[in-house]
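Chapter summary example: a protein plus zinc ion.
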Amino acid sequence: MIRTRVMVLSVLLMIMNAAHLLPAQAAPAKLSVHWEELTAADFREGIHRAQGTCLLPFGILEKHGPHLPLGTDLLDVRYASLHAAEQEYAVVLPEYYFGQIAEARHEPGTMAYSRDLQLALLQETTDEMARNGCKKIVIVNGHGGNESLLPYFAQTQLNKPHDYVAYVFDKRSPETGGPPKKTSMDMHAGESETSKMMIARPDVVHIDRAANESGADQHRQNLPEDVYTGIWWYARFPNHYSGDGSAATQALGKFQMDWWIDAIVKSIRAVKADDVSLKLQNEFYEKSKHPLDTQP
Ligand SMILES: [Zn+2]
């Protein structure tokens, strides 16, 4: 009788212990999309839930006209990426702003890392992400000055084998649609970018200062369109301002930001569904070890 009671008691205790352990082991229903907010155990679950898909929102620190903060591209790209990852789960890397911005070195607050470091740091960052299970890395570009750097980085992934794919998503505004724009020159800190900041961080937009400097094209170089120099941007926009931020509206910002978030969501879904790129990369790496054996 006593033995039976002891047995019943120990079985009960086992059940209670198991019940007690369960909540600690089970993954939470909602996981943060912020890499830095996850516990180690939740990170493991996050990578699993994201099917190995991670975002690297790529910003910069540079002057944005007389009225927007230095971190405009960083703040905007993180706003769009984090909202997209909330809709289609992905793990989002913390602040990254180590890109190409040599052309703004004459302005206060620019952080312009050297060419070699930009590439080395990005490579080590994506390698480290992949070592932690991010086998599909979407670099979401928030900065126009990275438009050559990022495709070059992606191209050079073919130099040696990687067990992950680096995808680049580089579009921040739709071609058409939405509230009609008032300006035609709108490349940097202008109508579109100012409008988007009015959504992401309206508290740091100084719209009253937007007309304090000229964002007009100064056409100071006389070369055919297809002859390129690094100084082209400075020649045209020496104030590091292209357009007119005073034309910005919240309505345009909302339209463009919603479009951007939706476009990132679609990219995450496409990347999750992509089972071809890594296979082709591996086939390519294998063939490139002995090119003379490659037959048409
Ligand atoms: Zn910008």
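Key point: The longest helix spans residues 2-25.
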